[in-house]
Amino acid sequence: MLPPQVNRLTVQEAADRYVELVRAKTVTGALSPATAEVYARDVATFVRLAGDGQVLDDLNGEDVDAVLLAFARKPDERRRRGPARRGGPGQSAASQARFRRSVSALFRHAASAGWVHLDPMAASSVRARERGGLRPERRALTREQAEGLIAAARSPAPPPEPGGSDGRRRRADQRTEVRDALVVMLLTALGPRVSELVRANVEDFYTNDGMRYWRIFGKGGRTRDVPLPRDVAAALDSYLAVRVAGDGEKALLLSWRGRRLARGDVQAVIDRVRRRVEPGRSREVTPHGLRHTTATHLLADGTDMDAVRRVLGHSDLSTLGRYRDDLPGELEVAMGSHPLLRRRGGQTAPGGEGGPGEG
């Protein structure tokens, strides 16, 4: 039922009220502070592009399309100093899709709060272009690359140089190889979000019936208990045996100064371990790329989709599609062991060698 009369707020007034509500949700745990700030930033961009003095209820589908197109063409400030990106200097498809979701959320709330008669997003025709397949560098590591990274993490690191670039001798407590190994093992085997990883505390890990678990505090205040593979549990025990917490710090991952590891430090850990991988198996990867790697290889190995969903902390199975990358030779392997054509001995007839009746 349509509201009999709307509150004719300007775009700026509506945005201010909406952002205040979004930030309030961080208090209850319904939204993480980082997510709330993304919404707030996108809404502020919407206000600039739509015009702060416009009445929100006066905007129609064409107006929204104009805003979405203006955003798509806006230079991406984060990539200004980086290499030229395929597709032009505007926003990436992922950024466009995120911005559209933020604007949609604003109008959904506006419709329920009586700020607009109709949600103009229903009449919008602009969509972010499809990703167009994988990026030039795959998001997920291949099995060989992932195994190379894990092997490098588990292998003893070379001894530190007697002196650094400034000529000073490194202290023994600055050696963080055991911690770095645990970071890589957790990211590669369990695929947590980087925010979940750095937020982890020692008390979040527990043992039940001989199995080690990690209680992960995820998005939206949701928690999940994920069992640790044996090798990851061993890496955890090795790290806890040498972990030194200053001032009773409860964080699991600590810098050599005894402080909680920051999100930006995790990429440095991955890069440090990757430098020890054999050149033929090494490839740059981000923490989120390792999350893709976890999902891709668990699914490729036939792990139940709902189990993978629970490991990654998604509420909907459909979200897994974003994290599932194609693997080289995967289709050939699948067709080479087709369940309907498998011999009693467990093998499928080789391609090109037809059986009786072929032709």
Largest sheet: spatial strand order: 1-2-3
How many beta-strand elements?
3
What radius of gyration results from the CA coordinates?
A: 25 Å
Largest sheet: 3 strands, antiparallel
Strand content: under 5%
Describe the structure.
Helix content is 43%, strand content 4%. It has 359 residues and is mainly α. The protein has 2 domains: 11-123, Tyrosine recombinase, N-terminal domain (DNA polymerase, domain 1); 143-157 and 172-329, hpI Integrase, Chain A (Orthogonal Bundle), CATH 1.10.443. Strands 1-2-3 form a 3-stranded antiparallel sheet. A hairpin with a 5-residue loop joins strand 2 (211-217) and strand 3. The radius of gyration is 25 Å and the shape is globular. The termini are far apart. The model is unreliable at 79-87, 130-137, 163-173 and 352-359 (pLDDT under 50).
Keywords:
mainly alpha, 3 strands, disordered C terminus, 359 residues, hpI Integrase, Chain A, 12 helices, DNA polymerase, domain 1, 2 domains, globular
